[in-house]
Specification:
- The protein is of the alpha/beta class.
- The protein has two domains: 142 residues, Nucleotidyltransferase, domain 5 (2-Layer Sandwich); 170 residues, Nucleotidyltransferase, domain 5, CATH 3.30.420.
- It has ten helices and ten strands.
- The strands form two sheets. Strands 3-2-1-4-5 form a five-stranded mixed sheet, with helices on both faces. A five-stranded mixed sheet has the order 8-7-6-9-10, with helices on both faces.
- Helix 2 packs parallel to helix 3, helix 5 runs parallel beside helix 7 and helix 5 packs antiparallel against helix 8.
- It binds 5'-O-[(R)-(carboxyoxy)(hydroxy)phosphoryl]adenosine and zinc ion.
- The site of 5'-O-[(R)-(carboxyoxy)(hydroxy)phosphoryl]adenosine (KG4) has 19 residues, from helix 5 and helix 6.
Length: 360
């Protein structure tokens, strides 16, 4: 049988990272040939959060240079590409449009197939960039916009088992950092400060642990952090204690819910079981360690992408595109960018329904 080799350019512009990467998929085995990323942390620093208009402009300014660099790093030419994959949502719509339009332009000029990738599918498959993770697996997706347990039954086959009913867990890290006067992005800043703190110093709630399901909530935790920050002078020691206590509360909630999710996942399935954690918050060491321990206890293998593929990147988008291309799931050039796009389209929205569709 002829070996099938696919070389795909991936483009990611859904938030504040502009990224381009080239991935090669040969007989199901993935090699990342190049992986370029330009962060916009400085552009947004003065505003205490990502400003959509500034993000979209920065993507426009950088994307073509990053794509050229990614092709050059990979040692491939336009003619070597089998297709172009771009994030088509969910995300900040201006930025998504920049990346998707660029991909469409390349496809039109070069006669290449377009693959419009769901950013969350990119995260879902990110562990496959560096290791063998076969379907089905249980995914905990923890990012700036999401916190969900998903049964990944196959490519494009996602079943949501539980979700946050309010804030995403990354959002809670970012808001905690902002409340405490730490610089963005919040997750790494809180994790860093937490290293010097006492995780039992500040009593914080463990929301929804009393509920016997997989739903989660983080907005009450944020309020509790605000109260703790106002209750006593915010010395560096106090701040570190709040960070450590907050990180511990999040870790406890996700640890307990992950154990429950593994029990539910295993109940309906046979064969080897794997828990995958992905998304920006999966970079958190305390959380990773706890999830790994829970997985071992439950008889699951544990997989987390290397740190650089936890947060937003284009390699995961290129891989999702290559896997789709392999089975012929390409998209028309008329496809539109989508601000909201849940992975599991069958589950009822947990919150944020309405004209633009479900948030989660
Ligand atoms: O997946 P991602 O890069 O972008 C989205 O698709 O949302 O996730 C970004 C989120 C941010 O909220 C960021 O604060 C959080 O991931 N994050 C972390 C860490 N690194 C990034 N949260 C906790 N600990 C970290 N080390
Ligand atoms: Zn992301």
């Amino acid at each position: 049988m002829m070996q099938e080799i696919l070389t795909v350019l991936g483009i990611e512009t859904s938030c504040d990272e502009t990224a381009a990467a080239v991935v090669r998929l040969a007989d199901g085995h993935c090699t990342v040939l190049s992986d370029r990323i330009a962060s916009q942390t400085e552009e947004h620093a003065a505003y205490g959060g990502v400003v959509p208009e500034i993000a979209a402009r920065a993507h426009v300014e950088r994307l073509d240079g990053l794509i050229s660099a990614a092709l050059e790093d990979a040692g491939v030419d336009w003619d070597d590409l089998s297709g172009v994959a771009a994030t088509a949502g969910p995300g900040l719509i201006g930025g998504v449009m920049v990346g998707l339009s660029m991909a469409k332009g390349i496809c039109l000029a070069r006669g290449l197939p377009l693959i419009a990738v769901n950013h969350l599918e990119g995260h879902a498959l990110s562990a496959r960039l560096s290791g063998e993770v076969s379907f089905p697996f249980l995914l905990l997706l923890v990012s700036g916009g999401h916190c969900q347990f998903i049964a990944v039954n196959g490519l494009g086959e996602y079943e949501r088992l539980g979700t946050t009913i309010d804030d995403a867990v990354g959002e809670a890290f970012d808001k905690t950092a902002k409340l405490l006067g730490l610089p963005g992005p919040g997750g790494p800043a809180v994790e860093n400060d937490a290293r010097r703190g006492d995780a039992s110093a500040v009593a914080l709630p463990r929301p929804l642990l009393d509920r016997d399901d997989l739903d989660m909530s983080f907005s009450g935790l944020k309020t509790a952090v605000r109260r703790a920050a106002e209750a006593a002078p915010l010395t560096p020691e106090r701040r570190a204690d709040i960070c450590a206590s907050f990180q511990q509360a999040v870790t406890d909630v996700l640890g307990v819910k992950a154990a429950r999710a593994m029990a539910i996942f295993a109940r309906d399935r046979a064969g080897p079981m794997t828990l995958v954690v992905a998304g920006g918050v999966a970079a958190n060491q305390t959380l990773r360690a706890r999830l790994e321990a829970e997985a071992v206890r439950a008889g699951f293998s544990f997989m987390a992408p290397p740190m650089r593929w936890c947060t937003d990147n284009a390699a995961m988008i290129a891989l999702a595109g290559a896997e789709r291309l392999r089975i012929g799931r390409i998209d028309p050039l008329t496809i539109a960018a989508r601000p909201r796009w849940p992975l599991d389209m069958r589950s009822a929205p947990a919150f944020g329904g309405g004209r633009k569709g479900a948030k989660a």
